């Protein structure tokens, strides 16, 4: 690990929301970066090992200190997660098909879980901490009892490798994403598939029908802190906010405009960004996958499983995401405007040029995590660079639109009201199970507060128009 000083960035959006506190350089791609629930440790998975750093006060001049390295996996590590109730316990999954539980203070593996038959790709602790859920390239989801170390059940969930898993704050629903283009919701008590979400040719809608065959792979999903919305990153280059109870996409976020001038690029954070978002969605609806490569909008991700998070610190209501080409991107949820971005200034102009030449682009930002509702942000990249940011105490207003970042009003509907800590053969389509939630709202999926009327809802998330 090499600690590096602050690096300048020509993008004027860089200094508005977060301040870069520390920059680390690892020798291998960082596939997962996680902050412990108490904010004292940072776990980085690189190749076949996990590095644990101590995080001192954000105002301290010294960088994070490496305190131990966890070794035991024989192939690449895909994901790591701290236990939500015991920051001394860490779980990891790997291409060697195993899941390991680690005691961080002793740097020892305390348990190895074996069930998957192919790469273990993603995992999440239940918020109560008693269960662990894992996804795999073998197209299954396994739910583990952490006391016994045995699987409670294995779900034949998808028809392609599972890319991401999230769990609602009340631990009632598991949400999975896959390269088959589907997002599925499973009941944690009955293990039944409650619903299958996928976009169709109708702008901004979702459906349980699998008739549309040109679905884009879904690389990542994360549920909102209040459990009412799901954020998904698809390989069509867009990020979508789903009201999964109502079975619809309520917001679509797109990357920055593809221009040669960084000053012109920053203009995408203004009023034109919302128009660009709507236009991109229309292009996706009427064309094929190649559209995003030739449009004026740089795709958020179309190759890597970049991660995203909700930011609710202070009065903010934001979404932050990694990307293939544009570094770290952050949007205002209400306006869909791009309000902050960070790209490594050492790499020069970082956008894809008109000829799709990748020479000057930013290294893909693969992983993100937050602490204290987004006050602290950490990112990890394909080139091994790790950034640690802290939010400015009073983020300045974004002059490109009427409401500043600190003035976003959510009406309590979008992301507030919960803890922000949360990523072929044998696959069942479950048409009879999907019907349980189609056309009606199941009791277990009724996460929205019935007291919110339409006016309050619109104050939180106005639908795409």
Keywords:
about 475 residues; mainly beta; Methylamine Dehydrogenase, Chain H; five-stranded antiparallel beta sheet; 30 strands; about 10% helix; disordered C terminus
Overview of this structure, please?
The protein is mainly beta and 465 residues long. The protein has one domain: YVTN repeat-like/Quinoprotein amine dehydrogenase (Methylamine Dehydrogenase, Chain H), CATH 2.130.10. Helix content is 8%, strand content 37%. It contains six helices and 30 strands. Strands 1-2-30-29-28 form a five-stranded antiparallel β-sheet. Strands 15-16-17-18-19 form a five-stranded antiparallel β-sheet, with no helix packed on it.
Q: Which helices and strands occur, and which strands form pairs?
A:
Blueprint: E1 2-4, H1 14-17, E2 18-25, E3 30-35, E4 41-46, E5 49-54, E6 65-71, E7 77-82, E8 89-94, E9 98-103, E10 108-114, E11 120-125, E12 131-136, E13 140-145, E14 150-156, E15 162-167, E16 173-178, E17 183-187, E18 193-199, E19 206-207, E20 218-223, E21 229-234, E22 239-243, E23 248-253, H2 262-265, H3 271-286, H4 291-294, E24 308-311, E25 318-321, E26 328-332, E27 338-342, E28 365-371, E29 376-381, E30 385-391, H5 431-434, H6 454-460
What is the compact description of this entry?
It comes from Lodderomyces beijingensis. The chain is mostly beta strands and 465 residues long.
Helix content: under 10%
> Would you tell me the structural class of the helices and strands?
mainly beta
Q: Count structural domains.
A: 1
CA distance, first residue to last residue? 47 Å
Q: Which ranges are low-confidence, i.e. pLDDT below 50, for 5 or more consecutive residues?
A: 4-12, 201-213, 260-270, 282-295, 346-360, 398-465
Write down the overall mean pLDDT.
76
Record the strand order, biggest sheet: 1-2-30-29-28
Q: Tally of extended strands?
A: 30
- What is the highest CATH level, the class? Mainly Beta
The Rg value, from CA coordinates, equals 21 Å
User: What fraction of residues sit in β-strands?
Assistant: 35-45%
Spell out the CATH superfamily: YVTN repeat-like/Quinoprotein amine dehydrogenase
CATH level-two architecture: 7 Propeller
The name CATH uses for the topology is Methylamine Dehydrogenase, Chain H
Oligomer: single chain
Global shape: globular
Number of separate helices: 6
Summarize the biggest pleated sheet: 5 strands, antiparallel
């Amino acid at each position: 690990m090499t600690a590096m000083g602050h690096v300048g960035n020509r993008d004027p959006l860089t200094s508005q929301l977060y301040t870069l506190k520390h920059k680390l350089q690892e020798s291998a791609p960082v596939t997962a970066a996680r902050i412990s629930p108490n904010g004292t440790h940072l776990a980085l998975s690189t190749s076949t090992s996990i590095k644990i750093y101590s995080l001192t006060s954000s105002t301290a001049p010294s960088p994070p200190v490496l305190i131990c390295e966890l070794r035991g996996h024989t192939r690449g590590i895909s994901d790591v997660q701290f236990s939500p109730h015991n920051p001394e316990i860490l779980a990891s999954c790997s291409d060697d098909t195993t899941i390991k539980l680690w005691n961080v203070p002793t740097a020892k593996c305390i348990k190895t879980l074996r069930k998957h038959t192919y790469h273990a790709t993603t995992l999440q602790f239940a918020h109560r901490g008693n269960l662990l859920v894992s996804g795999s390239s073998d197209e299954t989801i396994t739910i583990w009892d952490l006391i016994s170390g045995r699987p409670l059940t294995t779900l034949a969930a998808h028809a392609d490798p599972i890319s991401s898993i999230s769990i609602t704050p009340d631990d009632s629903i598991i949400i999975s994403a896959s390269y088959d283009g589907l997002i599925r919701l499973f009941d944690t008590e009955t293990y039944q598939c409650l619903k299958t979400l996928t976009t169709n040719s109708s702008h901004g809608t979702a459906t349980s029908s699998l008739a549309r065959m040109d679905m884009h792979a879904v690389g990542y999903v994360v549920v909102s802190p209040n459990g009412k919305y799901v954020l998904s990153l698809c390989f069509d280059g867009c990020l979508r906010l789903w009201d999964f109870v109502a079975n619809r996409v309520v917001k679509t976020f797109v990357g920055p405009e593809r221009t040669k001038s960084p000053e012109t690029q920053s203009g995408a954070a203004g009023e034109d960004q919302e128009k660009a978002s709507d236009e991109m969605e229309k292009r996706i609806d009427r064309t094929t996958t190649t559209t995003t490569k030739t449009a004026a909008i740089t795709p958020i991700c179309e190759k890597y499983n970049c991660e995203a998070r909700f930011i609710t610190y202070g009065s903010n209501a934001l979404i932050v995401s990694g990307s293939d080409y544009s570094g770290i991107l952050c949007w205002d949820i209400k306006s869909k405007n791009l309000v902050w971005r960070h790209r490594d200034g050492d790499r020069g102009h970082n956008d894809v040029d008109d000829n799709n030449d990748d020479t000057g682009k930013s290294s893909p930002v693969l992983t993100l995590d937050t602490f204290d509702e987004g006050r602290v942000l950490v990112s990890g990249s394909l080139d091994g660079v790790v950034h640690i940011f802290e939010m400015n105490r009073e983020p300045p207003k974004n002059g490109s639109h009427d409401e500043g970042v600190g003035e976003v009003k959510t009406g309590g509907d979008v992301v507030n009201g919960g803890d922000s800590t949360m990523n072929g053969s044998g696959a069942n389509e479950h048409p009879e199970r999907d019907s349980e939630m189609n056309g009606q709202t199941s009791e277990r999926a009724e996460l929205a507060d019935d007291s919110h009327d339409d006016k309050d809802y619109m104050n939180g998330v106005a639908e795409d128009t």
